[in-house]
Design brief:
By secondary structure, the protein is mainly alpha-helical. Helix content is 39%, strand content 8%.
C-alpha cells in the first residue's frame, strides 16, 4: 500500500485500510486518522471511531484541503 492507494474514497474505508496496514507492522507503526473537516459532526464521530475502535493515536489535518470561512463566503481577508 502507498499513499496513492488511500487518496480517494470514504474516509472510514481509508482508516480501515490504514488500521490493517498498522496491524501488520508488529507494533512499529501507529495509526493516524483523516477526517473531512467541512463536516464537523461526522469528523468528530470518525475520529472517535478511529481512536476507540482502531487504536489510532493522532489526527492528520491538511489545511489547504479545507476551505477557510473567507473562501466559503466569497469574501477576502486582508492582514493589517
Amino acid at each position: 500500500m502507498n499513499a496513492c492507494d488511500l487518496e480517494e474514497g470514504d474516509p472510514s474505508e481509508r482508516d480501515d485500510a490504514v488500521a490493517e496496514f498498522v496491524a501488520q507492522s508488529d507494533g512499529r507503526l501507529l495509526g493516524v486518522a483523516g477526517v473531512d473537516l467541512t463536516h464537523p459532526v461526522q469528523a468528530v464521530r470518525a475520529l472517535r471511531r478511529a481512536v476507540e475502535e482502531l487504536g489510532f493515536v493522532a489526527l492528520r489535518i491538511v489545511p489547504w484541503l479545507t476551505p477557510r470561512p473567507a473562501q466559503q463566503s466569497g469574501r477576502r481577508r486582508h492582514s493589517a
